[in-house]
Amino acid sequence: MNKHSRLSSVLTPVNTAKGLPNEHYVDPAVFAEERDAVLFANWSGIGFGKDIPEAGDAYPIDFLGTPLLMVRDRDGQIGVFQNTCRHRGMILVDKPQKIRGAIRCPYHSWCYGLNGELRTAPHVGGPGRNTHEDLDFAELGLIRIRSYVWRDVIFVNVDGNAPEFEEVHGELMERWKDFDQPMYHGGAGASVRLELESNWKLAVENFCESYHLPWVHPGLNSYSRLEDHYNINELGKYSGQGTYVYRQFEGQNGEKLDDFQNLSEQWHEGAEYIVVYPNTLLGVQRDHGFAFIIDPITHERSNERIELYYTKKPEDAPEHEALRAKNAQLWKTVFEEDVFVVEGMQKGRHGVKFDGGRFSPAMDGPTHCFHHWVATQIEQAREEA
Question: pLDDT tens, 111-121?
């Protein structure tokens, strides 16, 4: 049975479906195929607006070997460009920095505006001549990558062919419209970085489901039990989990973090955790939210970048510093508890006779939805090729 026919089994109902074939976790050739058909062809998360908070801020990102540059322009708008000079291909920015004037290539000093336009090319026509009739500056600006910012995550569509972000994810945006209001990063203690010896998809799959709570997260399960959760199965769109029981932290005097404003009743005790396909994981609660991006590094290695957000800036709510620290520590513990199972599944995928496994018809719907979506992207790209 070839890879193509094995993939088609993922399109069957969850009751009889098997997971993605092992090649999708251990084969570098399939990883390269996913790069193009899944990650470059869709809206992938690469960074956060909080990384470039002010005009002139620039932040380089290596996304699956492609050098990208996130920039906030003088109007406060975020743009993403290929971090490559149009002259000889030199990397333009090698570390996060403030651009005071222009983005200047360190090789021959070609300079670009924050909007990507080529501004100057010193001596390009010979010593002392900064123009040449054969060079059209209007055609030599930085290559812009399609981007969209939602919940402070900077999404990109590298191949440029995906439908608009609002078209692809409009239903999810409507589902969470109550949270379409200002939110602020929680500061230095609100960031978590994890390195995983696993394929990127296993981190996504683990986030999708609550089935593992009693055994992997016994502390969390003691007050947010497995039976308090529900599956979110939007086939072809997004998937994840929700809880009917969200417990707010309280301080010594009963104080709590401030809520987002005008939330509907479902959010008073509920919360949801959803995957924005392919690699962005989001959570919303009445008093804070989080976002994390899975960075695929190789077929067996990935990184997680996690950020926590609140209704007020830390400097505007200093009285909640202890609550924010307690909340950050809780989530850090939960995320770290997942590492051993994600890495354990990666090791298990080297069992040459593993056939993709079987899903629990009742508990594994969100993961099945994700597999179905990945398989659909792969099969579509193969058909087009």
Answer: 999 999 999 99
Give pairs for 320-327: CB < 8 Å, separation 24+.
320/251, 320/255, 320/257, 320/258, 322/251, 323/249, 323/251, 323/255, 323/256, 323/257, 324/186, 324/187, 324/189, 324/190, 324/257, 325/189, 326/249, 327/249, 327/257, 327/288
Q: Are 114 and 99 in contact (CB under 8 A)?
A: yes
Name the 3-class secondary structure at 292.
strand
| CA contacts within 13 A on the Cβ side of 291 | 24
Does residue 81 sit in helix, strand or coil?
strand
Which residues face 282 on adjacent strands?
274, 291
132-165 confidence digits (pLDDT tens): 999 999 999 999 999 999 999 999 999 999 999 9
Between CA 190 and CA 184 the distance in angstroms is: 11
Is beta strand 301-310 parallel, antiparallel or unpaired with respect to 103-104? unpaired
What's the chain's Rg over C-alpha atoms? 23
> Contact at 8 Å (CB) between 197 and 343?
yes
Distance from the Cα of residue 32 to its chain's centroid: 19
Q: How far apart are CA 169 and CA 163, in angstroms?
A: 10
Phi-psi region of 123 (alpha: psi -120 to 50; beta: other; left: phi over 0): left
Q: Name the pTM for this structure.
A: 0.95
Pairing of strands 144-150, 78-82: antiparallel
